[in-house]
Amino acid sequence: MSDPAFEYAPIGLVELENRIIRRCNLQFSMMFGGKEEDYRDMPLLHLYPSHEDFERIGARGLQAMQETGYYSDERIMRRRNGDLFWCRARGKSLTPDDPFRHGIWSFSDISEDRPVIELTPRERDVAIMTCRGLSAKEVGLELGLSYRTIEAHRARLLEKFGARKLPELVAKLSGMPL
Q1: Which of 2, 57, 90, 159 is most buried by its number of CB atoms within 10 A?
Q2: Which fold has domain 4-109?
Q3: What are the residue ranges spanned by the domains of the chain?
Q4: Hey, how many other C-beta atoms are within 10 angstroms of the C-beta on 65?
Q5: CA within 13 Å, CB half, 161
Q6: CA 111, 83, 120, 16 torsion: positive or negative?
Q7: Locate the HTH luxR-type domain: which residues (predicted)?
Q8: Chain centroid to CA 84
Q9: Tens of pLDDT along 13-47?
């Protein structure tokens, strides 16, 4: 039975079972490229820039969902044609005892607000945590690195994004007007 609210929602929606797409809506298929049926039974792994990103983000998401049943982040994803883009992902588990067993996720293309600049997975982690307002010491503790290493990553991010100071970098990373 078709569900028009799901099918025609103005945001990309997917129903996942163990991180495998069981169904998606029209907006999701348009965002990633192709038709809805192209995604049926597709591992979500195929839409990540790398297997490492899939594993790392999955571990972080699983931990949050075990605690709250919900997860949200902004990340780089990959379209079917290989193009990378910024995406906001939000998920709600329907099986709290096993969060990835069954859930509903939304995906929004936020690439107009953010340029895709080649970042290492570690730089992406540092960028995301910096946007969350964490200090270099807090980021270092969360990633198991020294704050000096985090400062070195931030210096590279400043250079890559053409920012002079950390607030300008955060503005550029979060798509805020300067």
Answers
A1: 57
A2: Beta-Lactamase (3.30.450)
A3: 4-109, 121-174
A4: 20
A5: 26
A6: positive
A7: 112-177
A8: 12
A9: 999 999 999 999 999 999 999 999 999 999 999 99
